[in-house]
Design the sequence.
């Protein structure tokens, strides 16, 4: 019994000579990918919007103004107002924050857990590797969004608990990738040589194994973000993510309730932002995959 | 082969036991419980104690788990707290058909359309047809189902009035069109891309070059040499889509107001309905694990190399 998902295979990393021009070559390959370039531009754009939202937003994100409720886009409110008369544009700008927060923070935690576990399991082998592999199998056998949903509901819905729940399901990806890479690097002659010279394991891991994994980590970091972004939108849509009055695109869709049929601006703009963001992060990951020549079976 | 099958089956069982323990411990480790959900006035300690005694929640957790496990082996998952007159199994079987119909049709749609498009893209590699299909697959594959659901309802239910906007009524197939589309179309993108990749990989093999060299026409090479080999990774990815999608998407069911299993899972988790949550989780896990199991076995049958490497590893 290897695994329930054993057929998905360990990552196969092509051997390559990495010279000074590796990152330059990667950038050249990245630029050729139109979707990847869109992703880069959009991500930079949304980062700026999210970080500078208090200065960019024309109104407050939770200023209720019932006299102007459910207004279609106008000069005063470029994207219209919602059921409480709050400015949609300002809310959409502020909502970039939870999206970015969940996307990035979750992946940072996932890497911090998954990478050391993958390196250690792959290098040590034996019982340790067996346990980690079983854990990976266990988590990959479950549909991730069910686990997240369940955890968030048991822990009470909030942004922090959403990040926690997503971290619990997200470390598996980087761990699997890094473990596979470590397994193949461990067999290299220079690692044998380092062992023969009596170099401490800690230093072998740090100086030989980790640098090999670095470009792969960049990709595995990026590839997890679309899932987190989707999860934030979806759970906020169900009312289980971001807490009101803080805005989230998914929550804006969920709150559009019975009005959106008559006021299409209430679902078009948040829906568009969710789709454009997921597409951008997906493009970014796809671009990185070809740029750094990741040859992983997923 | 028998050895291989048994080992796989053992793995499936181990995963299920682990999963049930995980869900069990987690649900009870968190403060609060079913007694303080949806009540205006907090219940008195005596009332809570009575509730706990009635459902055996006052015993140590490992005892509770063993009792649950013993009953679960005989497919008895208890009664939901919220609907004590029914059994968990009955309730699951009552709600499942809604999810299964929408999800099954969506998966069938995604696989049929996706495989055809992916094969066209692979056969016309690097032409405009390939580029169009591939870009469309990427874009379509990233649209969340519930966002697409809103767009579909707006145009085809509210504006054109062709289909009902949701719910589950007697309008027959018409109720199904929009949810199946919203659920299936994003999945089509992934299927098309994976099909293309599998086909392209198979097309670059030596035996394909040999086939061309000995004068086999393209249609022959495609069907006899490329497709056969590309089918292996395709089956392993597409077969699990059926249970995964037939168990229902919470998001799609929420958008269209479908009374499926996904919606029940959410409301049961909200009300801390332990037996129901555990029952649904295990039911889902069994389905998914069984599919992986069948896929693995099928994989071993199609490709003898798998059995050999398994033995070494």
Sequence:
């Amino acid at each position: 019994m290897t695994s329930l998902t054993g057929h998905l295979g360990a990552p196969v990393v092509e051997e390559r000579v990495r010279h000074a021009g590796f990152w330059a070559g990667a950038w050249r390959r990245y630029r050729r990918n139109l979707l990847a370039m869109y992703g880069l531009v959009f991500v930079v754009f949304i980062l700026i919007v999210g970080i500078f939202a208090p200065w960019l937003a024309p109104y407050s994100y939770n200023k209720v103004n019932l006299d102007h409720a459910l207004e279609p886009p106008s000069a005063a409110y470029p994207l219209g107002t919602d059921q409480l008369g709050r400015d949609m544009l300002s809310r959409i700008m502020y909502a970039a924050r939870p999206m970015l927060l969940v996307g990035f923070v979750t992946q940072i935690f996932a890497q911090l857990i998954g990478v050391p576990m993958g390196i250690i399991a792959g290098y040590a082998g034996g019982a340790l590797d067996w346990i980690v592999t079983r854990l990976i199998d266990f988590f990959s056998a479950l549909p991730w969004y069910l686990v997240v949903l369940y955890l968030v509901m048991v822990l009470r819905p909030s942004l922090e608990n959403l990040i926690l729940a997503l971290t619990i399901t997200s470390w598996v990806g980087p761990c699997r990738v890094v473990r596979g890479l470590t397994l193949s690097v461990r067999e290299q002659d220079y690692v044998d040589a380092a062992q023969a010279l009596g170099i401490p394991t800690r230093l072998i891991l740090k100086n030989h194994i980790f640098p090999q994994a670095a470009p792969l980590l960049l990709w595995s970091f990026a590839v997890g973000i679309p899932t987190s972004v989707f999860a934030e939108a979806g759970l906020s849509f169900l009312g289980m993510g971001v807490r009101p009055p803080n805005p989230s695109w998914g929550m804006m869709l969920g709150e559009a309730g019975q009005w959106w049929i008559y006021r299409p601006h209430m679902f078009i703009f948040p829906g568009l932002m969710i789709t454009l963001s997921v597409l951008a992060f997906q493009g970014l990951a796809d671009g990185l995959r070809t740029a750094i020549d990741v040859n992983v079976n997923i | 082969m028998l050895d291989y099958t048994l080992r796989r089956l053992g793995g499936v069982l181990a995963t299920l036991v682990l999963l049930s323990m995980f869900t069990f411990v987690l649900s009870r480790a968190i403060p609060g419980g079913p007694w303080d959900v949806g009540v205006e006035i907090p219940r008195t300690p005596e009332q809570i104690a009575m509730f706990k005694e009635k459902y055996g929640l006052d015993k140590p957790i490992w005892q509770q788990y063993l009792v649950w496990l013993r009953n679960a082996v005989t497919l008895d998952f208890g009664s939901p707290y919220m609907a004590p007159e029914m059994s968990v199994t009955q309730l699951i079987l009552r709600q499942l058909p809604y999810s299964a119909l929408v999800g099954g049709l969506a998966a069938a749609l995604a696989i049929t359309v996706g495989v055809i498009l992916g094969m066209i893209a692979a056969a016309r590699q690097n032409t405009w047809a390939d580029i169009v299909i591939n870009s469309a697959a990427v874009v379509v594959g990233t649209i969340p189902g519930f966002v697409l659901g809103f767009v579909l309802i707006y145009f085809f239910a509210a504006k054109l009035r062709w289909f009902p906007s949701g719910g589950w009524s007697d309008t027959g197939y018409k109720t199904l069109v929009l949810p199946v589309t919203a659920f299936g179309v994003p999945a089509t993108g992934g299927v098309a891309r994976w099909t293309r990749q599998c086909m392209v990989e198979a097309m670059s093999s030596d035996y394909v070059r040999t086939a061309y060299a000995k004068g086999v026409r393209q249609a022959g090479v495609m069907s006899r040499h490329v497709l056969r080999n590309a089918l292996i990774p395709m089956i392993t990815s597409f077969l699990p889509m059926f249970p995964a999608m037939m168990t229902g998407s919470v998001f799609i069911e929420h958008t269209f107001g479908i009374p499926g299993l996904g919606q029940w899972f959410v409301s049961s988790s909200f009300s801390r309905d332990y037996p129901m949550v555990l029952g649904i989780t295990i039911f889902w896990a069994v389905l998914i694990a069984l599919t992986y199991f069948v896929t693995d076995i099928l994989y071993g049958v199609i490709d003898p190399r798998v059995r050999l490497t398994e033995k070494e590893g």
In short: Chain A touches chain B at residues 1-7, 35, 137-138, 141-143, 145-146, 149-151, 153-155, 226, 230, 233-234, 237-238, 253, 256, 260-261, 264, 267, 271, 274-275, 278-279, 282-283, 286 (CB under 8 Å). Confidence is low (pLDDT under 50) at residues 1-15 of chain A. DSSP finds 13 helices and no strands in chain A. The CA atoms of residues 235 and 241 of chain A lie 5 Å apart.
